[in-house]
Amino acid sequence: MAIDKLIGPLTLGTLCIVIYMLSLGDVDFYTKGQPREATVVWEIYNKGNWVLPLRNGHIIPSKPPLFHWLSAAASYGLGGLSEFSIRFPSAFLAFFGVMVTYRVGVGLWGREAGLAAGLSLATSFEWVRAAATARVDMTLTFFFVMALYLFWYIYRTGRFTRLASLSLFILFALATLAKGPIGAVLPVLIIILFLLLKGDLAFVRRLHLVSGTLLFLAIVLSWYGLALWEGGVAFFEKQIMKENVLRFISSGAAGAGHVHPFYYFVPNLFLGMAPWSFFLPSLICFLYHQRNSWRQSDITFVLVWVVTVFLFYSASSSKRSVYILPLYPGIALLFGFFWQTLRHSANELPPLVMALFRGGIYLILVVAASSLLVVIGQNMGYDLLGLVRPLIHPRDQANLLLFDAVHQQNNLPFLLLALGLSVALVISFLALRARAWNAVMAGIVVFSASFFLFVGGIILPTIAAARSFKPFMERVAGRTHGSPLFFFQSFDSGALYYADRRIPFYAPTATPKGPYFILLWEEKWHRLMTGAAAPGARLIDKSKGTGPKGNHRLYLAEVPENVTLPEWGDDLRGRINKDAM
């Protein structure tokens, strides 16, 4: 019996370590967001400013520092800064988020429900992507969800101890230090709505509200107060107004960014929960069928949690797919409840629920079969991806071209992917015919794990190699060691991180007396030379990497002494500053 209890957590733990950790350090920074956070970690690690680490020595960071503190601590523990150490907190917290979700599912409905919840969360597309990303979203999600779990535990068990209540407020504070006030505002909103629905708002008074609130404020304001002291008005405008208030209410004119329509999260939730999103129609139908027993089955709180997060961010002006990451554990729990019921009471479920469920499995099999067909076709020289290339974004078309090149150089990984997809297809198809639902789940997990391992181990490193400025900046560091180096009318966070030094923006008033070096985009170099604005300047090196958008190469040029470069206009300055944010 003891061994049976270990099978679930051991399976989940191994799966998470394999998917999240194996290639965590294999992908060079090449996007805009990850190196932006990495430069904050660099400032903490190299300059020792743990309160308000200014990127490049002068740019106020966009987010509170909890993720960056964790990454810096991991870097100290692992012997230095690296892509692995900076991403490690996201993978570590994703792992524990899965394990705690498994345990909650077991406690509520049984081991099968917990395992189904854990497996579906661990292999959901958005969760896996966030786990391997050097950004603050997984840190926020972990403490956000842990606060909800702890509240739920207190409410269900009636254990109103001071320690439990104060722990709840500590989790609110940590979530706030991960991404701002939203870390406390949204979980508190969920709790209040749930208590209102239960007609039990008086429960709040049992949570040691006064002492908990004072503890929360002491933790949060200990950082916000010091950061405000150091950063002044600029800190308030950026981290409080722009990153919180304006992102929610702005139409984009105020620079909040990521403005999308209200329905934006409908397709993004489907993509983010893939492949388990194919079961969402059957899950929704099942929950509706169970509506009269929600109170008895302990799913009311989860439903309030999921719906509140979805509607809150849908109402926000600024939207990114990862914003709704905190609702994924909730959906995973609902799926675990559904799976447990399916395993033991399938004959009692409405025919429509079972029809939608089987339809979801067939759709997953179609996707897996199509993926297998593409892999085999590409290795046989047939460009099956060319059928969809005209339908997708130009940037993704470029990634497909990289995929074409990858399969010619990595036959073994492609064969292993084809093997994994084949195994998943056989297991799922045979299990579906036999109504062996656990085997169906095993087949889907094999399919998902094969896909994520291939993407993380082969595709992303290939894209990064084509776009990252890491090799170029390592050469720049060797050539410019000890010499003045500036960004001229250009900026890139990845280049800044891999320079392993601060690189100021060029200003004519700060032109050094001796020769100096500049980093600039390819088109800026041609413009500079065409206008003869920098006599005697010579090109030293150029990057092979093409930057986050795949359309910019960085140049390194040497400028003779006593040569002053032209100053940019206000419009260009604004664009540069936006890139730096």
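The record above closes out task 2.4. Task 2.5 opens with a second protein, given below.
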Amino acid sequence: MAKYILGVSAFYHDSAACLVRDGEIVAASQEERFSRVKGDSGFPAEAARFCLEAAGIRAKDLDAVVFYDKPIRKFDRILSSYIHTAPRGLRSFLQALPIWLKHKLWTEDAIRKELHYDGEVLFTEHHQAHAASAFYPSPFPDAAILTVDGAGEWTTTLIAKGRGNELRMIKKLEFPHSLGLLYSAFTYYCGFRVNSGEYKLMGLAPYGRPIYLDLIEKELVRVSEDGSFTLNERYFDYITGMRMVNRRFEKLFGQPALSPDEKPAQFHMDIAASVQEFTSRLMVLLAREARKATGLDRLCMAGGVALNCVSNSRILRESGFRDVWVQPASGDAGGAIGAALFEWYARLGNSRSADGIHDCQKASLLGLSVDGETAKKDLDRLGANYRQLADEELFSRTASDIANGKVVAWVQGKGEFGPRALGNRSILGDPRSDEMQSRMNLKIKFRESFRPFAPAILEEKTREWFEWDRPSSYMLFVADLDKSKRNTVPAEGKTGLELLHLRRSVVPAITHVDFSARLQTVSAVSNPRFYALIREFDRQTGCPLLINTSFNVRGEPIVNSAADAYACFMATGIDVLVADNYYLVKEDQPEFQGMEKWKKTLIRD
């Protein structure tokens, strides 16, 4: 009889659930996709129900529910930190204590109540779950493991070794010394929201120069040759206060923290470049230490910092590993996968096989499915006007629309697990367009103009267009555009966002100011429908790549259902929506009754 294990992450940010059947990942989703609250931290009741329904089982059929964290140990860290720094931080402590006493310390009770479940409830350590999520779905039979985030219970950085079904923890660093919190402190300092704005800081960095790197290394962080580090607590306020940085930090860099409604200046671009360079260098040191400590030449990574694709690429080039695999849901959501797989392999001792090439993440297409039946039901309920097209006509018409400058929303099959849209909940555009980056950022995504877009390219055409020699299925590495595709850019005298207006390549909409791009390679095996669309675009234009960005707007989660997709389509400047084989044009749609209510959500960030 099959054994079912449900992994759960909750109560901090990006709650999620994952169901594993005999070691196979059956389904996984973040709660935000159902609740429509970005980064939802509540108990993932809807995500868990979806997982159970996907397998055709009920909670009583589960063999175990495994939580990705040990709440009592985390509370011990929080309480110890406040006692250590008392009387500072009293306000923050008084705000946090009721939440812990009412909810977070009673996680087992919440699991039983929300799921109507009376079976076994187990717990992993936070970084055990991260390490398990990195190694067990990976293609490697053995590997070094590096997990880096803000903080778990106490651990912020972990080096481990995976072999077969075993995980062995080797070295760790503990709170308050945290690279994730350091990066978040600079995210806050540059006016972006912690736990969601780190991507913005990474995207801002290429517009600046790392002129504050020496100051960071001299005053903020002491780094050893093995990558271990200590933060100078005098400059930070995340232990005791309501802000990430304090006045000493602001005085050190000469300016107060930027307000969220202010636009970043050249100063903030230089700050971003400096902390990004520091982060990349430190991650390379940590990876080298992981290689030395394990004696292995393949690396698996997870934790929030593993979503920094710039640092990931530096690790691949500079750390000595011959291959690196990063968990697509490296943040807390991925802890649900790790918790379930840790129980199956590490605790229960079940055997694991890996061929060194193919991972077990199923292209991270693990969420709610939009098929012909569900799409039609949602679209009919909303009064949408559509045409149902056969595949050949659908791909041809959609590729032609994109080639003619239209923005297309593309919803197919199972939703992605993790923060990236990988071709099933995507907004697509023509990378050859000079105006497309600005148009999509400002009028469709409602976000900052400097944010770069990623290319999705036919896997077999990658080397013709990028300086890259391997698959990059999950958009977790950056690659430089091949020199043959670049333009000579007269950038003299131009700085900051002025660089946005230079035509840097034959595909300017996906080429960042440093000629890099966050690369997604698409194969016919992993995503045949998305592959077929890009191949048709290549046939029509000679360009084997598309802009691929997540189907959402600023402050909203990625769309989940066809109904979510239609609402977002109608409230933005998207020209065409394709849901399964249903083709919708904006001009053909009736007035959307839910428009004003939905638009109000766009102000959230």
